[in-house]
Design a protein that fits this description.
Elements: E1 3-14, E2 25-41, E3 55-62, E4 67-74, E5 80-85, H1 91-107, H2 113-120, E6 123-129, H3 137-142, H4 149-153, H5 184-199, H6 216-237, H7 244-251, E7 254-257, H8 265-268, H9 276-285, E8 291-294, E9 301-307, H10 315-328, H11 330-360, H12 362-372, H13 387-417, H14 424-434, E10 439-443, E11 453-458, H15 462-471, E12 475-476, E13 487-489, H16 493-503
Parallel strand pairs: 3-6
Antiparallel strand pairs: 1-2, 1-13, 2-6, 2-7, 3-4, 4-5, 7-8, 9-11, 9-12, 10-11
Helix pairs in contact: 1-5, 1-6, 1-9, 5-6, 5-7, 6-7, 10-11, 10-13, 11-12, 11-13, 12-13
EC number: 2.7.4.2
Protein name: phosphomevalonate kinase
Pfam family, one: GHMP_kinases_N
């Protein structure tokens, strides 16, 4: 039996830095870039003597990085010990495996036989990330191809990943994978946790059909996936982050308020003395107080992401600098955060109002959105022929204004903290993008820096924006909003890619 689960990457549209503290909200959009985890038994059958074994085998393969690690999993302590490895360790997946198995033990306290049989067959885990999680800009340039989405689309699916070159400073730093900032570690951890929990029978994700969440049971199952993935991700990265990336990987696009870090205290303090099943039982029973509200972009709007090619930024060190500034300048930082929070709320209100207007008066909404998609923002109001259309334009302009206020406060915060939250090069690019026909918003996602820029475009205007970006040396990525969270797939995504490619060949 093979289980394939996938989880999406994310774009944090508002709430950068603020989302680290309750009760500030962030709007996070999940994307069509997905991480896949494939779980199946390592051995066809169980050897008769294996019932006396204290260990079972776990194999973790990452084909894109040409890595394979073999582990022994202690059936008593549920700890993983690497036996052989062709690359560096993956703490996120290791914790996800240990915690998912511990959750299975905690769930099947009485009936351990079926679980024991599954575990003794070994676990064969394969992880695959869509190309959108990684930067292939250098390869495209090296092949002499133009910086366009078409060039990206010409790469084979799940292409092998190259590493950034060693630092020229001579420091012996391990080369890092060039990423695009879509939250690959959160999507990967969530996919592995979901696939294992389903494989071990802790949750049943089969009913997460087209529109997700048929009933309370589905939500409860997703909540278990969320707790295990969130715990594995936080412990794997060595700190309790805000968790918005894992939450959107599980539940999809949303408005998010973080959980209180205390819910993870038992996992953080777990030593060899406390059995892992107890720790995970504690975490599952803890009062997870995060809040999420359904959210997605209004109709006829497209999320675009662009890679400016100035190299990525380190989020943890930028967060550290902001926290240091908050401590040293309490009054000024509180004021900046208050204004940022107001801008975020205003943007959210305008977008929600636009969704409601689309619901109530779709024809008028569609008509004015398509008209505005051909014009720069200052001409939008001229095209409104009746009150509903004028109302739509008023909300569009309000959303733009809120975005400009957010960007201003983010720049101010960056200057005060001495870090490039919206660097000058990004500011020029964002201003140029905001002035293009049919562009509603442009900004920097998440913690900012040099990683990526996003735009929200109206109607069919995204094509012109990607062309304009290309001429500005910005590579428009093949990323769009997809509001769905974690899901169960029918088969190995690589097989699906091959069949689609084969079926598109025209035979003479």
């Amino acid at each position: 039996m093979e289980v394939v689960a996938s989880a999406p990457g994310k774009v944090l549209m508002t709430g950068g830095y603020l989302v680290l503290e309750r009760p500030n909200a962030g709007i996070v959009l999940s994307t069509n870039a997905r991480f896949y985890a494939i779980v199946k038994p390592l051995y066809e059958e169980i050897k008769p003597e294996s019932w006396a074994w204290a260990w079972t085998d776990v194999k973790l393969t990452s084909p894109q990085m040409a890595r394979e690690t073999m582990y022994k999993l202690s059936l008593k302590h549920l700890k993983l010990q690497p036996v052989s490895s062709s690359g560096s360790r993956n703490p996120f997946v290791e914790h996800a495996v240990q915690y998912a198995v511990a959750a299975a033990h905690a769930t099947f306290d009485k009936d351990k036989d079926t679980l024991q049989r599954l575990l003794l067959q070994g676990l064969d885990i394969t992880i695959l990330g869509c190309n959108e999680f990684y930067s292939y800009r250098n390869q495209i340039e090296a092949c002499g191809l133009p910086l366009t989405p078409e060039s990206l689309a010409s790469l084979p699916p799940f292409a092998s990943i190259t590493f950034n070159a060693e630092e020229s400073t001579g420091e012996n730093r391990k080369p890092e994978v060039a990423k695009t900032g879509l939250g690959s570690s959160a999507a990967m951890t969530t996919a592995v946790a979901a696939a294992l929990l389903h494989y071990l029978g802790v949750v049943n994700l089969s009913s997460l059909a087209d529109d997700q969440l048929q009933g309370k049971k589905d939500v409860a199952d997703l909540d278990v996936v969320h707790v295990i993935a969130q715990t594995a991700h936080c412990i794997g990265q060595g700190k309790v982050g805000s968790g918005f990336d894992v939450s959107s990987a599980v539940y999809g696009s949303q408005r998010y308020i973080r959980f209180s870090p205390e819910v993870l205290s038992s996992a953080q303090n777990a030593g060899m003395a406390t059995p892992l099943t107890e720790v995970i039982d504690d975490v599952l029973k803890a009062k997870w107080d995060h809040e999420r509200t359904k959210f997605s972009l209004p109709p006829l709007m497209t999320l675009l992401l662009g890679e400016p090619g100035s190299g990525g930024s380190s989020t943890p060190s930028m967060v550290g600098a902001v926290k240091k500034w908050q401590r040293s300048d309490t009054q000024d930082s509180l004021e900046t955060w208050r204004r940022l929070s107001e801008g975020n709320s205003a943007l959210e209100v305008h977008l929600n109002t636009l969704s409601k207007l689309a619901e109530r008066h779709y024809n008028a909404y569609e008509c004015i959105i398509n008209a505005c998609s051909l014009l720069p923002a200052e001409k939008w109001l001229e095209r409104a022929n009746e009150p509903t259309q004028a109302e739509v334009v008023k909300e569009l302009l309000g959303a733009r204004d809120a975005m400009l206020r957010i960007r201003y406060q983010m720049r101010k915060m960056g200057e005060a903290a001495g870090i490039p939250i919206e660097p000058e090069s990004q500011s020029q690019l964002l201003d140029a993008t905001m002035n293009m026909e049919g562009v509603l918003l442009a900004g920097i996602p998440g913690a900012g820096g040099f990683d990526a820029v996003f735009a929200v475009t109206l109607g069919a205007s995204s094509k012109n924006v990607t062309q304009a970006w290309s001429s500005l040396n910005v590579l428009a990525m093949l990323v769009r909003e997809d509001p769905h969270g974690v899901s169960l797939e029918h088969n190995d995504p690589r097989a699906k890619e091959i069949t689609t490619a084969v079926s598109s060949i025209q035979l003479e």
